[in-house]
Design goal:
By secondary structure, the chain is an alpha/beta fold. Helices cover about 35% and strands about 15% of the residues. The chain is built from ten helices and eleven strands. A hairpin with a 2-residue loop joins strand 4 and strand 5.
Amino acid sequence: MNIFKKTFGFGKKKRVPDGLWSKCSKCSNLIFKKLLEENLKVCPKCNYHFVLGCYERLEITVDPGTFVEFDKHLTSDDPLKFAGPKTYKQKLEEAKSQTKLNEAVITGQAQISNIPVALAITDSRFIMGSMGSALGEKITRLIERAAEEKWPVIIISGSGGGARMYEGMFSLMQMAKTSGALARLKERRVPYISVLTHPTMAGILASFAGLGDVTLAEPGALIGFTGPRVIKQTLKQDLPEGFQTSEFNKEHGFIDIVTERKQLKKKISDILEYLT
């Protein structure tokens, strides 16, 4: 028998090559990676929308070849000289190395269905997409330029980190700065569409992400100021089913439209045509 095994390979376990499958975070379904990518990283079994990096998001949102990036090399400083097991400078360098980004947001000008827009996309892989001085500055510059050029503004948020504590008040100040820029944009009657993806939390939601003239969200995204676990511990009571999901927020009037990822570009396009 051993001779047959050796000669013909009977009884050998076939190895599945690494990196071919992904596991759904919600239903634990194993999904062939190529199928997942073809489905825009949405689980075909439970409809869980996987988190996308900013350039992945860009690819499925704008017309091909139309994106021109602004302020690409703008990056945060270390105003507090934040110390700890890892310094803030070390965290920044680590995030830059892992994501190939200089900050947790990309900004620029693009076209969606041939309509020129000013676009920003945050990226949760970079220190949880938290808002430091550079992120706030990049978004403010984009909004101010859009106000001059009369470009509709679209900001796609996927930031679970809120204000970046390593920068203290410098980070919190970005909430007021971005909100002020959007108020001036509104005075010029230039539309702003806010798109919320999983997760959009804390200072990001409490500033530019929560101020859209029209607010869209992907299904099942966690959207809120403080996480549900903290709220539950504070209130000492159970929270409603689906609390802080896109659907819950839409039901209570905070979000206008919950839309599938495959339909998101078309929805934005339809809204732009109507508003412009």
